[in-house]
Specification:
Elements (H helix, E strand, L loop, with lengths): L9 H4 L2 H8 L3 E5 L4 E3 L8 E6 L2 E6 L6 E7 L4 E2 L1 H5 L7 E4 L3 E6 L1 H10 L1 H27 L2 H13 L7 E2 L15 E2 L3 H8 L3 H13 L3 E4 L2 E4 L2 H8 L5
Antiparallel strand pairs: 1-8, 2-7, 3-6, 3-8, 4-5, 4-7, 9-10, 10-12, 11-12
C-alpha cells in the first residue's frame, strides 16, 4: 500500500528553466483548509501545482457519503492532469488538509506546453503510470488484507523516517509511561478510515487493540506511534 508518492514530485523533477516556464503559464491561488481544489465529476480542465500545504485525493465509494482517500499530495505535486489531457470528467476530489497555495494553469496552456516540451510530457506520463500502479496495489490490499493490517501499514507509511508529509516527527513534552515519545500522524479517525477503505467504527476498534498493546497512543486528530517495530510486524500480517 502507498498513500504518498515515492517518486520525485513533478515540479522538483523539472529543470530550473522548465519550472520557471510552466509556473509562468498560470496564477497563484490560496485555498482555505477543507476547500475543494478539484471536484470529482466536474468538467473543468485546469491543472494545479501545489506550492505549499497538503491535500487529500479521494473518490466516492458504493457506501453513499463514504469516500476512499487514494493519496496525500504535497509541495511540487501536479494535480488534475488527467482532465487536462482528455475530455472526461474529473476522476477524483482534491481537498485541502490545511491552508494551501497552488499554481493554477489552464488545461489548454498546459497541453500546449507539453506539446512543445517532450521531456516534461514524459514526466507526466511517468507520473500517471506510477499512480495507476499505486491504485492497483490499493485495490489488491482492500481485497486481501484485514482492517488491522491495512491500518498498521498506513500508519507505518505515514510515520516512517523517510516520509515528508502531514505528520510530526516526535511528540512534545515528557515521556508518559514506559515508552518514549514517537512520531505523530496528524489525521482524524474518519480520515484514517478513508485512507484504507474501512468504516470509522472498524478503525476505532483496531486502534483500541493497538492501544491495549501499547503500540500507539491516540488523541484529537492524532495517532502517536509508540512501537514502530511491532506496528510493522502487524502490517506484515503477524498476529501479536
Amino acid at each position: 500500500m502507498g498513500l504518498l508518492g515515492n517518486e520525485l514530485a513533478f515540479a522538483r523533477a523539472l529543470t530550473a528553466q522548465e519550472r520557471e516556464s510552466v509556473m509562468a503559464l498560470g496564477n497563484q491561488k490560496r485555498y482555505e483548509a477543507d476547500a475543494h481544489l478539484l471536484t470529482e465529476g466536474d468538467r473543468s480542465s485546469h491543472v494545479l501545482i501545489i506550492i505549499r500545504g497538503w491535500v487529500t485525493v479521494s473518490v466516492a465509494t458504493d457506501r453513499g457519503a463514504t469516500r476512499l482517500i487514494l493519496g496525500l499530495r504535497g509541495p511540487g505535486e501536479l494535480l488534475g492532469e488527467m482532465a487536462a489531457l482528455d475530455p472526461h470528467p474529473r476522476s477524483a476530489t482534491v481537498r485541502a488538509l490545511g491552508p494551501i497555495e497552488a499554481q493554477v494553469i489552464s488545461g489548454d496552456a498546459f497541453r500546449r506546453f507539453l506539446a512543445l516540451n517532450p521531456r516534461v510530457s514524459g514526466l507526466v506520463i511517468r507520473q500517471l503510470t506510477f499512480r495507476l500502479r499505486s491504485a492497483d496495489q490499493e485495490r489488491s490490499a482492500l481485497a486481501s488484507l484485514t482492517v488491522l493490517q491495512r491500518l498498521a501499514s498506513r500508519l507505518t507509511e505515514l510515520s516512517g523516517p523517510e516520509t515528508v508529509g502531514p505528520y510530526t516527527p516526535a511528540a512534545a513534552g515528557p515521556s508518559r509511561g514506559p515508552t518514549t515519545a514517537g512520531p505523530i500522524v496528524q489525521l482524524a479517525q474518519d480520515e484514517l478510515a478513508a485512507t484504507i477503505g474501512a468504516t470509522r467504527e472498524a478503525v476505532a476498534k483496531a486502534l483500541r487493540l493497538l492501544r491495549t498493546q501499547h503500540v500507539v497512543r491516540t488523541g484529537n486528530r492524532m495517532v502517536e506511534i509508540l512501537d514502530p517495530a511491532l506496528l510493522a510486524l502487524l502490517a506484515d500480517g503477524h498476529q501479536e
